[in-house]
Amino acid sequence: MLFNRIKKVLLQKNNNINYRIKYETFKKFYYLAMLSAIFFIIITPVCSQQSAIKVTILGTAGPEYFPDLSGISTLIEANEQKFLFDGGHGTNEQLYKSRINPKDINRIFLTHLHSDHYNGLADVWLTPWFLLGRTNGIELWGPDGTSEMVQGMRQMFAHDMNKRVDKYNLLKNLEITIHPLKDGVIYNQDGIKITAFPVEHSDGNPAFGFRFDYAGHSVVMSGDTTYHQNVVKYGTGADLLIHNVVAYNDQLSKLPEMKEVMKKLATPEQAAKVFLETKPKMALYSHIVTNGLGTKQGDKIIMARTRKAGYTGPLIMGIDRMRILIGNEIKILPPQSLANFPLLYSKEQIFP
C-alpha cells in the first residue's frame, strides 16, 4: 500500500517523533487532496450545466391599472447580453427590482406601436442616461412609424436634452439607432439570432412576434395577436412559448367595444390551439387581460378554459419579475425578495 511504503521510507533511518509527524501530516494532506478531487469531479458537471437563456417576465399587464402589476415587458439574457422586448409602464422599476441596472439596456424590440407596449420607453432611454451614467446610445427595432414616434419623444423631452447635456451627460449617449422591422432574421450576432414575424392585431398592425435562438434553445413571443399561423410556424418545438391571452366576464363580453378588443387578442381556446400545434417545452401567458374577472379569479378561469380546450402540456401564468432559466432543463424561479433591497440613485453605484 502507498501509505506503508511512505511510512517505511520516513522511518527506516530514524524512528523518532519528527518522522512520525511528517508521515501523519502527509496522510492528512493526501486524504484532503482526494476529497477535493472527488468534490471537483462531482460538482463540476453540475456547475457547468448553466442555463443558455435567462428570461425575466418584467411585466404581464396590458394598458389596465393594477396595484401590483406592470405593463408588458420581457427581458432575455444570453451570452452575457441583454435584449428588452416591449417596454410598458413601469419597465425601469421592474428592471431595477429584478436586479438589472437599467443603464445596461441598449437593445430594445417593439412588437407594435400601441402605447401600452412602449409608454415606458422614454424612461428606459432618458433616466439611466442622466441618473446612472449610461455610456452608450440605444438600438431600437420597431415597425413602420417607429421613427416618427422617436422624433415625437425627442420633442417631448427637448428640455432635458437641451439643459441636462454637459460633461457628465454626453449627448451621444442619447442617440437612438432605429432598425425597421421586417419579416425574417433581424439580428444575428455572437451566436444569437432574432427573427421577426408578422401577426394579426387589427388596429395595432403592423404587429410582430419574435423568435430568439441561442445555443440550440429558443424563446418565442407571440406579441399581441389573435390565433396566427406564424406563431405556430416559429413556435413549433420552442423551449418557451410566451402568448398573450384575453378573457372578460359575461357582462363585458357583450359590449360592442369589448367584442372588437377580443377579436385582436387570443382567447384561451385560441392559445390552446397554438400550444397543441407547437408543443413547446413550456408555455407561458403574458399580456394577460382579465377585465371584470380580477387577477386571481381571471387566472383560474383562463387556465381552466385552456385545459378544457384540450391542451394538457406544461403551462404557467406569467407573474411579474418571475424568471425562466432555459438549458438542458427549464427552471421557473419566483420573483426575488425586495426585503432590504438597496436604492439605486447615482452613476457611482455598483449595482446589483
From TrEMBL:
A GO MF term: 3'-tRNA processing endoribonuclease activity
Domain of life assignment: Bacteria
Gene3D superfamilies cross-referenced by the UniProt entry: Ribonuclease Z/Hydroxyacylglutathione hydrolase-like
SUPFAM superfamilies for the chain: Metallo-hydrolase/oxidoreductase
Record-annotated Metallo-beta-lactamase domain positions: 70-287
Membrane-spanning parts: 29-46
Record-listed E.C. numbers: 3.1.26.11
Name this polypeptide is given: Ribonuclease Z
